[in-house]
Every structure is written in C-alpha cells, then in structure tokens.
Amino acid sequence: MELTDKSIFQNGIKRVIISEEELQEKIAECGKYLSTEYEGKPLLLVSILKGAFMFLSDLNKNMTIPCEMGFMACKSYFDSTDSSGDVKIVYDLAQDISRYHVVIVEDIIDTGRTLSKVVDILKQRDPLSLKIVTLLDKPDRRVVGIKADYSLFTIPDYFVIGYGLDYGEYYRNLPYIAEYNVEG
After folding, report:
1. Quick check: is 140 catalytic?
2. What Cα–Cα distance (Å) separates residue 66 from each residue in 18, 58, 97, 104, 154?
3. Is pTM, for the whole model, over 0.85?
4. What is the pLDDT of residues 51-90, one digit of tens each?
C-alpha cells in the first residue's frame, strides 16, 4: 500500500475511538501505579516494537522511579488486518533479565498469540517477576488464555490505528487511537 496522497491517508481513518487527552490521562495513572508498585526494585520495561514505542515513551515520562528499558520486535500481521497466527521474534532483548522485575509494555492484546509467545520466552529467563501492561485490550478476539495485569482501555473488535499502531506501517504517527476504515 502506498499512501503518498494525504486524502487517501485521511480516508483510512474511520473515527477516533480514544482521544489524545484520554490516552495521556490513563498513561499518567499507569505511570503513577507502576512507580508505587516497583519503588526500590530493579525494574525493566520491555516494549514490543514497533507498536508499543509511543506508549513506552509516554509511560516512561510518567514514571517517578529509576527504570531501564529493553526492546523486542515480533511480527504476526504481515501487511494484513488479521494476525497470521505465525509469530516471529525478529529482535530480542540484550539484557539478562534475571536481576529485574520485568513489565512487558504492550500496545494491544488481540488474539494473544504474540504476547503469549513473548511471555513464554521471558519466563524461561527467570526474571524476579513478570507482569503485563497493555494500552489496549481486545478480549473478543482472544484465542489464547492470556490477560494483562494492568489494562488501560478495553475496546471492541475494531482494527485500530494510531499512537504506534499501524496498517501496513502507516498511521503510527496519529496522536490518538482510531478505527481503521477498511473500505477507505
């Protein structure tokens, strides 16, 4: 998909579901919660790239305690609106996580396949603890038994874009969460 025309780009946005203000308010609450829960503990926030990078950045800005960041990249969508079910780790953590309390910072839990694979991999590395924080939870699509420890928003079964979430690598730059217009 080539979106060089601004009008074509705009046609992909069906409607805003979560405003920039709503996002920032909930992220500030989450930062406060995590800062309280992990005060005095070695904390590693692990972002699942690319979708969660904006969430991680803003969450980290709202943390009042020291923490480190690590990154993993997984792929399961392959330029489609449906997960292929085939989860590939394309970039792995560099840190030895056995000396950290690890919080996975995820953009969205949809089918749960990707996150389930990441959790399995990280548990094998013996972190002090492992929890999940997700910006968006879409329980209607879940096909594996995984649940976030802290979920900022629960949404219906829409394909969403914005705030790091994409369709074909576009729309990540939107400061809000929108429903993608599949007819756009």
Report:
1. no
2. 29, 15, 16, 16, 29
3. yes
4. 999 999 999 999 999 999 999 988 765 555 555 567 778 9
